[in-house]
Amino acid sequence: MKHRTFFWFFLPTGLAMLLFIAAPIVSVVMQSVFAPHEAVFETVENCGPFGCKEETVINQDATRALREAEPLGRFVGLDIYFDRGHLAIAEVGEAWRGSDSMGAFFDRLGNLPFYRAIGFTLTYTFVTVPLLILLGLMIALAVNSLHRHLKGLVIFFSLLPMIVTPIIGALILFWMIDSRGIIGNLIIYLSGDPTLSLKASTSLMWISIIIYGIWHSAPFAFVVFYAGLQTLPKDQIEAAQIDGASRFQQLRFVVVPHLMPLVTFVTLIKLMDNFRVFEEIVGFNAQAHATSLSWIIFNDLSGETQQLSSAATTSVLTILGVAILLSPVLVRTWRDFRGRAH
Amino acid sequence: MFLRTLAAAGAMAVLTTSTAMACEIGARVSIVGNEFPAIQTVGAEAKGCTGAEVATNLTADHQKINLPGMQGNPAEYTSAIVANSSIVALMNEDVIRPLDDLLAKHGEGLAKNQLITIGGKTMAVAFMANAQHLVYRADVLEEIGVEPPKTYEEMLAAAKMIREKGMMENPIGGAYAAGWNLAQEFNNMFLGMGGEHFKSGTAEPNVNSEAGVKALEMMKALSEYMNPDFLTHDSNATNAEFRAGNVAIMNMWGSRAATMTDAEGVPQEVVDGFAIAGPMTVGGGDVPASTLWWDGWTVAKNISDEEAEATFIAMMNGIRPEILSDADVAKQAVWLIPGYEPTEAAVGVFAAANAGTIPYPMLPYMGLMHTALGNELADFMQGKESAEQALADVEAAYTAAAKENGFLQ
Q: What are the TM regions of this chain, as residue ranges (chain A) (predicted)?
């Protein structure tokens, strides 16, 4: 394609990307290095149904003057990135100096909101992604070997977990694992411990959320792999069979290598998705046990006082986290691409 | 019965027509607020005005949308229905206007204690009061032979007896869901222990104190008698436990007490045994371990004078004394509207007000403290860290947020 043609061809997409991807990121980065102005307090008498009381309020005239002078707010540079709510540089340093073992250090790290969220997010991401790929592949192979009359129906049911809105799915499972729910009751029966509660235990809550995550995402892997299986050349399989390859060997040396680019694709998408785990935590009411970066953003914005700069900072850190997480896969894809071009 | 219903319907019809004549507005009105029954009533009554459109957006998520919806010029919402906690965010951002001029013109009939004045300016008109107080099963307490608890210590003793008698495994209920609810229960207990959230006159946190530790220890002791899932139970889930007959004593919102046993399928013994009383004290203090709340309406700043006037008239129509002639409406809340006569469901809130319960603090930085408490206390409740550590975490989290928002240097 000529450069000129390419330019006109790409222009609409480029503009849309600028407007909908680049501009919001710039705005979030700006927001994260500016904070609200220092409040000017005054003490006044507040009266209401329960009597009068001297109380502190914000002096609006003085605040308005400050805001008009610097409409963006107070420039704080990277202060918010380094405070306790985010990277907590000072607290991490202190924890490092104050702990005599790695275990104690990680314990203290887990007390800081950002690292606690990262701890759950990474565990969730790295446990669910491989398992959902494996499960998706197994479903795809199973469906592929079904009789064609059955396929439509089975595909429909296999896709249901993905069709159900995540928060609704999470809520349904949340009630099922209640100690009076069907799964909760079953677990109590199986363990023989009547006081066992999934919702009261951090580790059981993590497991529940991870199982939900796999259940919810496996259909995505399944459809992608199923589509890939339809393009599998028959002659290769036949050649392998003639060479005396077992079913497992066919899978290992023919099917999986054929699907490899799709595995990369699913890994990429799901790493990105699962790093932003959110609905599960809200649906499971699990904030006492598990938090994530997206949950922190939501929490910052839903308090009585909205913490916009803090939420913006966590957003930028999320973008950086996704970039770091995806870099190995992206580098690999780039190498494949270069390799193919030569 | 039929005749009475008919007569009531007739009376309502007369009332509605008379107000329709009385309430004429000349500009748009748009109301945002919470969605519990009393506020639904006020919104519906405000909509009775004619001459221009009155829109309402009543939702549990009102706090997330009221500020952005009033920051534009012109503002999307001309009125926000708020409580003493949520008015602070609107005042911090200066999006609501003083009502004194409108009060002089259209405010006749309001009682003095309905006016929320801040620094001499009236910023909101309150129409109902609320508080958390004791809700209990009279039949269960009778069976173990104890009076309704007046203190949290008595509550613990009663819970122990109920469990030992094998009547209920987890007799205490509580909205201890991590987040806003857990923080609110701490606020109650902390104020009851004589604590103050901030060092006097400053935004410096003051919760890591003896009162804070004692408050947390009491909460922990209570939680031993709660459903083990208590950290996921908000007030809805706690009410469900009570309705199901699993809970005998709990601290619950007055605004929810009236309709507690109205739901379908509540066992008869729960309906019959349901009773309410004033809030409890704790640790030998005289101040109840609870907070007082009001709900009221405000008028947006970034709107034309015509819209502000129309909003004021419509909202006055929403809280006019005539709405109380409907028995169902009268029962919905502890109304501050003149002419309100307390129903049976209101005794808890009245007892709270009479016992000198402290109003929820209306401070610019209280919202950040509440958020920090909600995030950091769950670890202690699960036994993962000490009370001192949890409170130190609260102070550290609050300090970081308050610095960022310009409340602390």
A: 7-30, 117-141, 153-177, 204-229, 250-269, 308-331
Residue of B190, B50, B119 lying closest to A45 (CA atoms) = B119
Q: For residues B142 and B167, what is the distance between their CA atoms, to the nearest angstrom?
A: 12
Q: Are residues A228 and A323 in the same domain?
A: yes
ipTM of the complex: 0.87
Task: Tell me which residue range forms the domain holding B391.
Answer: 131-291+352-404
Mutate to test the interface with A, among B61, B93, B404 (most CBs of A within 10 A): B404
The alpha-carbon gap from B33 to the nearest alpha carbon of chain A, in Å, equals 14
B70 and B184 assigned to the same domain? no
Q: Do B404 and A113 touch (CB under 8 A)?
A: no
Contact at 8 Å (CB) between B374 and B182? yes
Query: Do both B319 and B357 map to the same domain?
Result: no
B366 CB neighbours in chain A (<8 A) are: 304
**Do A204 and A237 share a domain, yes or no?**
yes
Residues B55 and B197 in one domain: no
Write out chain A residues lying below 8 Å of B371, CB-based: 299, 303-305, 307
> Measured between beta carbons, which residues in chain A are less than 8 angstroms from residue B85?
304
Cross-chain Cβ contact B201/A306 below 8 Å: no
**CATH value at residue B382:** 3.40.190.10
Full pLDDT tens readout for chain A, 342 residues: 688 888 999 999 999 999 999 999 999 999 999 999 988 999 999 888 888 888 889 988 888 888 888 888 899 999 999 999 999 999 999 999 988 888 889 988 989 999 999 999 999 999 999 999 999 999 999 999 888 889 889 999 999 998 888 889 999 999 898 888 898 888 888 888 887 888 888 999 999 999 999 999 999 999 999 999 999 998 988 999 999 889 889 999 999 999 999 998 999 899 999 998 999 999 998 999 999 999 999 999 888 888 999 999 999 999 999 999 888 878 887 887 787 655
* Four-residue CA torsion sign, A25, A29, A30, A36: positive
B113/A49 touch (CB, cutoff 8 Å), yes or no: yes
State the nearest Cα–Cα gap between A325 and chain B, in angstroms.
27
Choose the closest CB to B406 out of A47, A74, A91.
A74
Determine which of B225, B375, B409 to mutate to test the interface with A (most A C-beta atoms within 10 Å): B375
R_g of chain B, CA atoms, integer Å: 22
A84 and B85 in contact by Cβ < 8 A?
Answer: no
* Same-domain status, B205 and B333: no
Together in a domain, A49 and A185: no
Chain A residues closer than 8 Å to B205 by CB: none
B111 and B192, same domain (yes or no) = no
Distance CA B158, CA B263 (A): 27
Please provide residue A9's backbone torsions phi and psi, each rounded to the nearest 5 degrees: -65, -40
Identify the closest residue of chain A to B93 by CA–CA distance.
A60
Shortest distance, CA B71 to any CA of chain A (angstroms): 13
Domain range enclosing A89: 79-111
Statement to judge: residues B282 and B142 lie in one domain: yes
Total domains in chain B come to 2
CA distance A208 to chain B (A): 15
Report the C-alpha gap between B132 and B293 in whole angstroms: 9
Calpha distance B179→B182 (Å, rounded): 6
Within a domain: A12: no
pTM of the model: 0.88
Q: Which residues of A touch B113 (CB under 8 A)?
A: 48-49
C-alpha neighbours within 13 Å on the C-beta side of residue B165: 15
DSSP state of B401: H
Provide, as residue numbers in chain B, all residues whose Cβ is less than 8 Å from the Cβ of A200: 228-231, 382
Q: How far apart are CA B213 and CA B386, in angstroms?
A: 9
Same domain, A147 and A214: yes
- Residues in Cβ contact with A313 at an 8 Å cutoff, skipping those fewer than 6 apart: A32, A80, A81, A85, A86
